[in-house]
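Appendix B, Record 12. Input sequence as logged:
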Amino acid sequence: MHLVTSEYDYLSQMVPHHEDAITAARQLRRSNRPEMRQLGQSIVTTQTAEVGKMKGWLERWYRQSPAPSPSGTTMPDLSGLSGDQLDKTFLHYMIPHHMMAIMMSQQLLMHGEAQHAEVAAFARKVRDDQWAEVRTMREHLARWFGKQNMPCIPQVPGMPGMMPGPHMPGMTPGPHMGTPGRPAPAEPSPTGT
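Logged structural output:
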């Protein structure tokens, strides 16, 4: 993953990144676990809609720029896997895959690169929704396969709450997710005011 340097850069990277996740998540239809089938369907439904939205924005605002193109997958081919191997491999690779999207979204927001309010709101939603899914996937991985060999979770600069916590070693949702009964804090402005 390279640094997000503009709104166009974010959108053009995120489209193939989402498409990669959709391809992998479709394989979970074959999972023996209802939780995994539900997770896969949720990713397919949500990210397919998000890809459509991003492609619409790219067409409307960046028609003269190159179309998004895959820069290499970060997900393995799951088509030959089944049972525990399918579920474990999916979780082991999708957690860091989601973290890449979270980091890209946070970079866009931290550096004030979003040129349209819709894209800033979208990036916040991607960040927060995928963070919730990372927590769920880590819980599944630990419950079914043990905590050893848990994928490494990088620190996300400027994202509060990325410290060890009671629910997941190495991660807590933090104030950017909001606290029940209290609204989530506003994004810091690019000028620091």
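Residues 77 and 167 are 31 Å apart (CA to CA).
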